[in-house]
């Protein structure tokens, strides 16, 4: 259950990162409110997952989901570049997440 909560926390991190971009430096009200709500929800779920997952594993997976999810949203919706070096970096992040999951005891 902790892993499902952690994945949801990571997905909420992607939502708040994307809405933060849309808020244009917190100058747009609706994206700013969405950012704050999903930040709070994401951190609450992360803390719940940390009840049974090791700190290093939970935090690394949470930030990794956020990084990869934000990277993909940037490419798909914000037309950010998808160069070879960026793709390699994304593959390395995903590899690290898989290794963290495989090494976890919970």
Main sheet properties? none
Tell me roughly what share of residues is in helical segments. Answer: over 70%
Question: What is the mean predicted local confidence, pLDDT?
Answer: 94
- Give the strand tally: 0
What is the domain tally? 1
Protein structure class: mainly alpha
Unreliable runs = none
Percent range for β-strand residues: under 5%
Helix/strand order, N-terminal first: HHHH
The radius of gyration is: 15 Å
- Termini, distance in Å? 10 Å
State the shape: flat
- How many helix segments? 4
InterPro entries: EmrE-like, Small_drug/metabolite_transptr, Small_multidrug_res
Transmembrane segments: 27-46, 58-78, 84-104
GO molecular function: transmembrane transporter activity
Subcellular location: Cell membrane
